[in-house]
Write a structure and sequence with these properties.
Elements (H helix, E strand, L loop, with lengths): L17 E4 L1 H9 L4 H10 L4 E4 L1 H14 L3 H13 L1 E2 L16 H9 L4 E3 L3 H4 L3 E2 L2 E4 L1 H12 L4 H12 L2
Helix pairs in contact: 1-2, 2-4
Length: 168
């Protein structure tokens, strides 16, 4: 079993876009280095996006990664991701997801962490769409919206991402 420490220092909080990442996004990111999910994870790791997770979400992350991480490259990527994610303590339980009630934990964390988005490939979450200003987005929809907010052409960000992928 892999155990991840949750480093968090309130002095390091920046005012930036905050998201909650569903476990299925992490699975996609580790399976495809060029996916939108991977781009989002890379933005979290580099500190451009703030990601938050509750203890329940952390436990789910750990269960999945215990099964998925099978080499040192993936282990290092997971460690960088876990180091970047901030743990939040939900004070209330939200009940908006009807068909898979365990998915309510993502809304609990989003409210506690004041997140603007939940990134997921789960249709039960998509059905909600928006709750108290928190938008549920597919990775590709989130990525396009995120990049278009700060770059009219998108070319500068695309080039920077490609350089990062190519290791230059």
């Amino acid at each position: 079993m892999i155990i991840f420490n949750l480093p968090f220092n309130i002095n390091n909080i920046k005012l930036m876009l905050t998201i909650v990442i569903d476990t299925n996004i992490l699975i996609d990111a580790w399976q495809d280095d060029f996916s939108y999910a991977r781009r989002i994870i890379d933005e979290v790791v580099t500190g451009n996006i703030r990601a938050v997770a509750s203890h329940k979400i952390w436990r789910e992350y750990q269960l999945i990664f215990d099964k998925l991480i099978n080499n040192s490259r993936h282990y290092e990527m997971a460690q960088r991701f876990f180091y970047a994610v901030e743990e939040v303590q939900p004070q209330t339980r939200i009940r908006v997801v009807k068909y898979d009630q365990q998915d309510n934990k993502f809304f609990d964390a989003a409210v506690a962490g004041q997140a603007e988005y939940i990134i997921s490939n789960d249709c039960h979450l998509w059905e909600i769409g928006e709750y108290q200003g928190i938008q549920v987005k597919k990775p590709e929809d989130f990525w396009i919206e995120y990049k278009n907010k700060n770059d009219d052409t998108g070319s500068e960000n695309w080039q920077a991402w490609m350089k990062n992928v190519m290791g230059r």
